[in-house]
Amino acid sequence: MKDLLRNTTSLSEGIEQILNLQAKIESDASNKYLAMAAWLDRNGYANTAEYLYKQAEEEREHFLKVFKYITDMGGIAITPAVAEVQQEFASFREVFEIALQNEIAVTKAVNKVIAKCRAENDYATEDFMMWYVAEQREEEKNARRALEFFELINENEAAGKFALDVQIAKIGE
Ligand SMILES: [Fe+2]
Questions:
Q1: Ferritin-like diiron domain: from which residue to which, for each copy (predicted)?
Q2: CATH number of the domain to which 67 belongs
């Protein structure tokens, strides 16, 4: 019966492929945040490290959400290979500069999926992906907010380091 259902999926091959790519992007995003959290942890930014450990968990959920959608629609979900991620960062600020760049890249990837859905009249997948549109709006806003703090507080002073660690971690609350 399961094999029969698999033959009757309404997912086109192209949509299945781009969804698997999106799943991989979300999975990579999780690992990128994990590496950032570990860097923050070993450099004394314990509060922000906690925030990014949570972000890593969230990205893992984003990954699973796409992964399960592919299966629910009768497609074949492919477990992504674990990619190498950046482990070292020049500064606290650089972590968030890269985090914002990554989030913008994810937003663009989400937009590509939706463009493909529209080209192929796949309204179910388009509807599913709208959740990611809202999520990305929030993720980008948070990363930009974190960077704003570096304009307000001097990272190169001990008191500044502590204040930044406390303030940026609060974004995630
Ligand atoms: Fe995500």
A1: 9-154
A2: 1.20.1260.10
- What local confidence, expressed as pLDDT, does residue 83 receive? 92
| Predicted confidence band of residue 75 (pLDDT cuts 50, 70, 90) | very high
What is the CA(61)–ligand 1 centre distance, in A?
8
Residue 157 belongs to what domain range? 11-171
- Ligand 1 centroid–CA 56 distance in Å is 9
pLDDT at residue number 173 = 81
Residue 11 and residue 56: Cα distance in Å, rounded? Answer: 29
* Non-local CB neighbours of 43 within 8 Å, separated by 6+ positions: 92
User: Does 160 reside within a domain?
Assistant: yes
Is residue 1 one of the residues assigned to a domain? no
| Residue 68 CA, ligand 1 centroid: distance in Å | 15
**pLDDT at position 172:** 80
Ligand 1 midpoint to CA 4 (Å): 32
Residue 73 belongs to some domain of the structure: yes
Number of domains, the chain: 1
Q: Was 120 annotated as part of a binding site?
A: no
Distance 163 CA to ligand 1 centre (A): 27
Tell which phi-psi region holds residue 4, choosing left (phi > 0), alpha (psi between -120 and 50) or beta. alpha
Q: In angstroms, what is the span from residue 62 Cα to ligand 1's centroid? A: 5
C-alpha gyration radius of the chain: 18
Residue 116 pLDDT grade (very low, low, confident, very high; cuts 50, 70, 90): very high
